[in-house]
Amino acid sequence: MPQQDTTHLTPAHLAKRWSVTAGHLANQRSAGIGPAYLKLGGRILYRLVDIEAYEERSLVGASA
């Protein structure tokens, strides 16, 4: 089994991380919303750095 590069997430891995479906992520991509992603040879990958930045931007009610 190929080793998953921890700097990239598949839609299935991101769906699990966020407790959503892979279909939800596909809908976000189709609508042009959500985190940035790579499309390489028909395969969708999310860079972990982009996911973490998206999560940071989405943080609500952060206090110091």
Automatic annotation (TrEMBL):
<protein>
    <recommendedName>
        <fullName>Helix-turn-helix domain-containing protein</fullName>
    </recommendedName>
</protein>
